[in-house]
Specification:
By secondary structure, this protein is an alpha/beta fold. Helix content is 29%, strand content 20%. The longest helix is centred in the N-terminal third of the chain and has 16 residues. The structure holds aspartic acid.
Length: 328
C-alpha cells in the first residue's frame, strides 16, 4: 500500500472548544495521533505515519518553522520514507506556507496541505473529511508533479493560486483567475489542469543553502496613506517592501516617490494589489521602469512577500526579481 506521512503543525483542524457549538476555541491542541484516530477508514487509504512538527495556530507560523518544515519534507522523500506527505495546518496562513513549499521543496511526490474551518470538537466538524481527502490525494500517483496542493472542502487548489477568502465560511478558499486544480469527493479525485508556473524541482530555490530569510514588509496602501511608513520600514531593517496597492498596484504620487528613493538605495519594491483578483502589470499607471519597481503579476501581497524573501536570499536584483514574478 502507498505510504503517506502526516506532518502536523496545529491549526483549527487540531482545535478544541468547550462545547460543540462554542464560537471560541483553542487552535492546535490535538496531537497528530488524535487527528488520525478521528478519521474512520483512513488506514485503508494508505499506510500512515505521523509526526508532530509544531502545535500552533497558523497566525504564529514564521520563517524558522517554514525552513524546518521544508527541510523535513525534502528529508522524508530523500530517505524514501513516504510516497506522499500531508501537512495539517491552520487556514490563516496555509496559502503562504503552501506557496513557500511549492517553491523550495524538490520532489515530484505529492505534498498536500489541509486544515479546517471548524475545530475538531464542533458540530459538523469539517476536518476529518478534509484529512481523508488530503491523504487520498497524497496517495494518488496522478498527484505527482503537480506541486504543492491545498485540499480543502472537496476542492484541490494549487498552492500558488489559492487564497483564503472568508473568515468563517466552511467554503473559505478560492483560486481567483486560475481556478481549481481538481476536486476530491470522499477520496475520489479528479484533476482539471496542471500548475501553470514553475514549481518544486524546477525552481532555483532550495532551503539547503538558507539559514534565515530576509525581512520583507507588506504595506497596505489606501487613500491618504502616510508616505513616511516606507522609510520607517526600511529603517527597521526591511530589505524588501511589498505594496498591497490600490487597484492595479497603485500608490499615491508621494508614496511612489519615496518607493523610488528606497529602490535606488537597494531596497526591492514589489507592487501587488489589495483587490484580491486580477493581475498587476508593469508600467500601467506607474512608471516601473523609471521608478525601479517590480510588478507582482498574479501574486497577492502575502505570496509576493514569500517569493521576494526567496529572491533576496539568492541576492537577485530588480530585473531578475521581475523575471521570477513572471516565472513562478
Ligand atoms: N487561526 C486558525 C489557524 O490558522 C484558523 C484555522 O485554522 O482555520 O490556525
Amino acid at each position: 500500500m502507498t505510504r503517506v506521512h502526516i506532518l502536523a503543525t496545529g491549526g483549527t483542524i487540531a482545535g478544541t472548544a468547550p462545547s460543540q457549538v462554542a464560537q471560541g476555541y483553542r487552535s492546535g491542541g490535538l496531537s497528530v495521533d488524535a487527528l488520525m484516530a478521528g478519521v474512520p477508514g483512513l488506514g485503508d487509504v494508505a499506510t500512515l505515519t505521523g509526526e508532530q512538527v509544531s502545535q500552533v495556530g497558523s497566525q504564529d507560523m514564521n520563517d524558522a518553522l517554514w525552513l524546518r518544515l521544508a527541510a523535513r519534507v525534502d528529508a522524508v522523500f530523500a530517505a524514501d520514507e513516504a510516497d506522499g506527505i500531508v501537512i495539517t495546518h491552520g487556514t490563516d496562513t496555509a496559502e503562504e506556507t503552501g506557496y513557500f513549499l511549492h517553491l523550495v521543496t524538490g520532489s515530484e511526490r505529492p505534498v498536500v496541505l489541509t486544515g479546517s474551518m471548524r475545530p475538531a470538537t464542533a458540530l459538523s466538524a469539517d476536518g476529518p473529511l478534509n484529512l481523508f481527502n488530503a491523504v487520498s490525494v497524497a496517495a494518488d500517483r496522478h498527484a505527482r508533479g503537480r506541486g504543492v496542493i491545498v485540499a480543502i472542502n472537496d476542492d484541490l487548489h494549487s498552492a500558488r493560486d489559492v487564497t483564503k477568502s472568508s473568515t468563517t465560511d466552511v467554503q473559505a478558499f478560492v483560486s481567483p483567475g486560475a481556478g481549481l486544480l481538481g476536486t476530491a469527493s470522499y477520496g475520489r479525485i479528479r484533476y482539471f489542469r496542471r500548475p501553470t508556473h514553475l514549481h518544486t524541482g524546477s525552481t532555483e530555490f532550495t532551503v539547503a543553502d538558507i539559514v534565515a530569510l530576509p525581512r520583507v514588509d507588506i504595506m497596505y496602501a489606501h487613500a491618504n496613506m502616510p508616505a513616511d511608513l516606507v522609510r520607517a520600514s526600511v529603517s527597521l531593517g526591511a530589505q524588501g517592501i511589498v505594496i498591497a496597492g490600490m487597484g492595479n498596484g497603485n500608490v499615491s504620487t508621494e508614496v511612489a516617490e519615496i518607493l523610488a528613493d528606497v529602490a535606488r538605495d537597494g531596497v526591492a519594491v514589489v507592487r501587488s494589489s489589495r483587490v484580491g483578483s486580477g493581475d498587476v502589470g508593469r508600467n500601467i499607471e506607474l512608471d516601473d521602469d523609471g521608478l525601479g519597481l517590480v510588478a507582482s503579476d498574479q501574486l497577492n501581497p502575502q505570496k509576493s512577500r514569500v517569493l521576494l524573501q526567496l529572491c533576496l536570499a539568492r541576492g537577485l536584483g530588480p530585473a531578475a526579481i521581475q523575471q521570477a514574478f513572471l516565472r513562478y
